[in-house]
Amino acid sequence: MTEHSTDLSTKQHSFNFHGNASEFFGIWIVNILLTIVTFGIYSAWAKVRTNTYFYGNTELDGDRFEYLAKPMQILIGRIIAVVALIAWTILSGINPIAAIVCGLLLALALPYLSVRNMRFDARITRYRNVRFNFEGSYSNAYLNILVKPLAAYALIIASSFGFSALLMESHPVVAIIGGILLFTLTAVFGYAWVMVGMASYVVNGYRYGGKPFSAELNMVEYAKIAALGGALFLGSFILGFLLIIGLGMFDVLQALFTGDVIDPETQMTSVFALLAGYLYMFFIGFVIAAFVKTRIRNYLFSKTQIDNTLQLVSNMTLGGYLALIITNLLLTIFTLGLGRAWADIRHAQYMASATQLDGDLALMAVQDHNLEACNAIADEMVDAFDINLNIV
Amino acid sequence: MTETVKGHLIAPQNSTKHAAELTLGSNGFIILKSEAHQYQCQLDAVTLSDALGSMPRNMTFASGWVFISSDGNKLNTWINRHSKTPLLVRLERNLLLICLATVVTALTAYGLYVYAVPKAAKWVASHLPVELSRELGEQGLTMLDEMGFEASKLEQKEQDKLQLRFDDLINKLKEQGVEFTHPPKMTLRFASDGANAFALADGTVVLTDAMVKLANEKLQLEGVILHELGHVHKEHVMTNLVQTAILSITAAMVVGDSSGISDTLTSIAVIGGGLTYSRIHESEADDFAAQQLYSWHQSTEPLATLFEKLHKQQPVDLPGWASTHPALDDRIETLRHYQPPPQPTAH
């Protein structure tokens, strides 16, 4: 073990992103123009061009990543995914039973689609003539992506509501307080258990050539992040509520909910208060999402090694990431969407700057595997239905 | 004149790096020198990685070895001098085209949003099976009951009278050649929330008791029923459903994800778009009611008066852009200034 740790500390390779916004804007807007002119057909070529740009401008130790998917592959996958999405939307809109069946089908397909998607994405990514791969099994996918989350939900609901129901007759106060405590506790640990299962399934399934990625994750770390995130939410919620009372807006708020008549004088203020409230909750949502993402990514990367010789490192900071996503949001809104190209470049720059790989890359001679990336259907399905597994 | 570019070689299917040097001849001849592998050929015999922006291009030799330059600019410049720049790359760098593309994109987005989506939704809605809207209408009624709507508390006699007036109205409209895909029905409900009226997917018009009481003059009631019949006539419920579906699908396809921001923006855009379409539908229904009222009674005043009464009952007015209905003030204004469309003169 000591040998490894000395190895790891000797060399540090940081990821660098070389793309720039003005150049990418040209590529991006021409992609959109050609997509419009060809009624969407070109979108497959556009995707390949965009990804080629982002992969090809990401550099590690003097070499760039490569995106190998072919436009025709993407086009076929995309057509199938769009047809499936339209059929699914219409079917689930017809009546409640059809909607439930559609939801169930999607849930059942999710682990399968995730595996196919990760495998495709891994096999079309190449670095130094060696492609990545994903070897996680379907059975483990169903266990970690479907069974465990369902079990966690069942446990959370059964334990807290069961406890409350049992004691409600004799000790109502104990029942309610105990129920809330039990709910919080099981929710935090349920989340940690599910996330650890999913993340270690995904990470341990990855290969670079034949070399395995490995990560041993600790549930307690995830539970800590979830608990802090929850506390942050509760704290800001209480703070917001205190602000409302402090500013004397409570009556207005109450009237809004009960539908009482408010004199026109206060009407405008109440509308503004409502908007300010929305903005505040929106901002809190961003802060918590950014907090959870940075902490989990930093932790997950710190536990991830490749072939036990290379160590992944993530140095995201809450302030840095929050500033990035908020400025990107404003950039996109105030340019009516045209700033998306710039926002994407800034995002890639930040993510690369917060990522490094420790260990001597040159010492590792890796042989490529001979497995082909078959079709892009799952890849496009996951995009169309927006069901990406977000482990970081 | 020859140039040299330093860099490294990567073996086929293997991650090992070897220092290498490329000698580039003025006639397009390439000599690769390295301890691990030597090669020489013309530029057109190597496979170049796709040109894209200013990304350094790699050379893959016929033997499978890949050369990566440590001075990407220098190699790119030499390659550009000896081979044609692909059309796509020239387009992506063309400032004029970029400006044009920006304008076309903005216009297309606007056109899709304002014309294409409503048109397409209308077409799809009119081609959906009748059973679907019937089913949805029944669901709508069940949903109302779950939301706390009860059977009407009006006297049976008054209910019968209202029903008769409704049927009269429908007959009058049919005589004028106004067609309905779904035969309109009227049903009365009691709700604690106050005056309200709406149309369901299957042509059912729901009036609350409070609305019947508020519209205490015959023509006011006629006005509000005509407004709802406008929704039925133009199949607004189904059109709205299809519009929302189209918008969400398009938004999901157009906006790729980079940091979860687009998710938020997409849902805001879809909600905002839905609201815009809903306001357009309300104006259309107002217009339908105004047209009939004007041709029968030469006045749109009764509906305007009813809206004024409604306005007084509403506690808080949301700003127009955040609401499903246009601001009542504007609707009243439009009604009062209603001008009938010019009639074709008969000979």
Automatic annotation (TrEMBL), chain A:
Stored InterPro entries: DUF898
Keyword Zinc among record annotations: no
Transmembrane spans: 25-45, 74-91, 97-115, 174-204, 225-250, 270-292, 312-334
UniProt key word Cytoplasm: no
Keyword annotations from UniProtKB, A to Z: Membrane, Transmembrane, Transmembrane helix
Cited Pfam families: DUF898
Name this protein carries in UniProt: DUF898 domain-containing protein
Organism listed in the record: Shewanella hanedai (Alteromonas hanedai)
TrEMBL record, chain B:
GO MF entries: metal ion binding; metalloendopeptidase activity
Keyword terms, alphabetized: Hydrolase, Membrane, Metal-binding, Metalloprotease, Protease, Transmembrane, Transmembrane helix, Zinc
Keyword Hydrolase: yes
Domain DUF7092: 5-81
GO CC term, one of those recorded: membrane
CC cofactor note: Binds 1 zinc ion per subunit.
Domain of life, source organism: Bacteria
Coiled-coil regions listed in the entry: none
Protein name per UniProt: M48 family metallopeptidase
Organism: Shewanella hanedai (Alteromonas hanedai)
